[in-house]
Amino acid sequence: MSAAPEPSSQPASTPLVRKSLRALLWSYGGAVARAGAQLVIQLMLARLLGPAAYGQAMAVFLVLALGWLMAEGGFGAALVQKEALETAHIRHALGWVLLISSAMGLGVAAAAPLIARWLGDPALQPMLLACGLLIPLQALSNIPASLLKRELNLRQTQFIQVGGYVLAYGGAGVGLAALGAGAWSLVAAFGLHSLVVLVGSQMALPQPLRVWRPSWRGHADLRRFGLQVTGTNLLNWAIENVDRLLISRYWGAAALGAYAAAANLSRAPANLLVSSAQTVVFASASRLQQDLPALRQGYLAAWRLCGLLAWPLFIGLAVHAQACVALLYGQRWAEAAPLFAAFCVALPLYALLSISGPLLWAVNAVQAEMRAQAICLLLMGAGLLLCVGQPLAQVVWWLPVLYALRLALVMVPLCQRLQLPWHQVMQAALPGVAFAALAAVLGGLSQAWLGHSLSAALAFAVMLLISMGLLLAGAPGWWLGDGLAGRLPSRWRLTQRTPGAA
Questions:
Q1: Other beta carbons within 10 Å of 445
Q2: Cα–Cα distance measured from residue 62 to residue 303, given in angstroms and rounded to the nearest whole number
């Protein structure tokens, strides 16, 4: 005898669901455009700069990202999470971001010589000095951008982000790189992009940022939430970038360039799948914090969709890593191929983690993610330090193991908060595991027939799409779950469910 269904606030949340779906469509539309632009522009920049200069720029970006996370103080996320937002909250967030970002910019500029020496490249010092101006600019741009995300105004957000990226990196960045500016071309593009986001987001808001008077008093709840988010973001930054810091110091700029290029290439399709969903998941789930049935249903559906899209895609890319890197980056980037394969194996786990993290934030369980990040950070640093002197192509396989552990540590508190049994999560994961195994077998067969070539990759893609299409059409309920499969048109199915069948 089945249990009685739990009450749900579906009627009350229907307008939000519709708005979320529209936002998701705009977000994915913009993500497709940005992923395409990023792929083309980053490939052009990598070919123009080469591994060494590209690695220098990535080292500077590590400092920029860390400075921004601390300077922004989590206030952007705090404004999105606030159920009832008032002008006083925005003024308070603006005041603290101005204060903290100015201090961070001055601190980074003052420490530029020390940071450059620690990274093993004194030539980085003038670029690090420039970070003193770029950090406050980027931190300030996040306030109006977060307000647009809060209102699920993803249409204008995507226009600003994609347009700014093409202008800054595709225009100024590529142009400067072609003129021989080296790593400075990417630093200049970063600053221009931050400026475009700041100005564009202000213009898109009903009340421009300039009319908000900064405030530093009251609203301790915003600061507490922002502090928790900052702590989690710093751990996220560390677990995403400590490896790059150590590679820059112990393996050199060229190795960092190959490592970063492999990571960026693998993250392009991953970000297309999950980054847009993250924004909508956090904003929507924050308004459905008490509707556990709706959150559970959406989370399990996300697992199944990830299995359908991410697992076979990234396993196939891992098998054909050598052909992909040679085609896109050229032969002088050959050292990036084994690194790219390891990243691709880890990325299905990253996709699931990217969906799970925002849900923890939405249900006000940021501390749980902080604990998971701290444990994995310690393990990552210790593992890399123990492997100093070993080939980077072997050391990099430590990353998929860490991603698996990180996902497990996040899943435990999330399932507790959502009251979600583990066996339901495992059932939702089985289709992804099956598709991953299918991709591995077909990838091996295509390589056995055609070797490490573009023809092998194309043959794999055709075989995988045909096989997955037949499996989905034959048993959509098992692969997608009843909720998602019920939305498929009946003509897409090879088998039909008989009325009254169990």
A1: 15
A2: 31
**Contact assessment for residue 415 and residue 360, using Cβ atoms and an 8 Å cutoff:** no
Cα–Cα distance for residue pair 428/356, rounded to 1 Å: 14
Give exposure, 147-180, as e/b (b: 16+ Cβ within 10 Å).
bbbbbbbbbbbbebbbbbbbebbbebbbebbeee
Residues in the chain: 502
Q: pTM for this structure?
A: 0.69
Q: What are the domain boundaries of the chain?
A: 37-251
| Residue 155 CA from chain centroid, whole number | 19
81/282 Cα distance (integer angstroms) = 8
Neighbouring residues of 185: CB distance < 8 A, sequence distance ≥ 6: 45, 49, 57, 172, 173, 174, 175, 176, 177
Q: What is the pLDDT of residues 418-439, one digit of tens each?
A: 888 888 888 888 888 888 899 9
SS3 182: coil
Token pair recorded at residue 410: 């996040």
Give the CA distances from residue 439 to residues 265, 471, 477, in Å, rounded to whole numbers and listed in that order: 19, 13, 21
CB 289 within 8 A of CB 82: no
Contacts from 43-46 at CB under 8 Å and sequence distance 24+? 43/328, 43/329, 44/170, 44/174, 44/177, 45/169, 45/173, 45/174, 45/177, 45/185, 45/186, 46/261, 46/329, 46/333
Q: In which element (H, E) is residue 181 found?
A: none
Nearest to 104 by CA among 234, 218, 239, 235: 234
Q: How confident is the model at residue 126 (pLDDT cuts 50, 70, 90)?
A: very high
Q: Report how far residue 206's alpha carbon sits from residue 204's, in angstroms, rounded to the nearest whole number.
A: 7
Cα(154)–Cα(142) distance, rounded to whole angstroms? 14
Inter-CA distances, 244 with 256, 326, 348, Å: 6, 23, 21
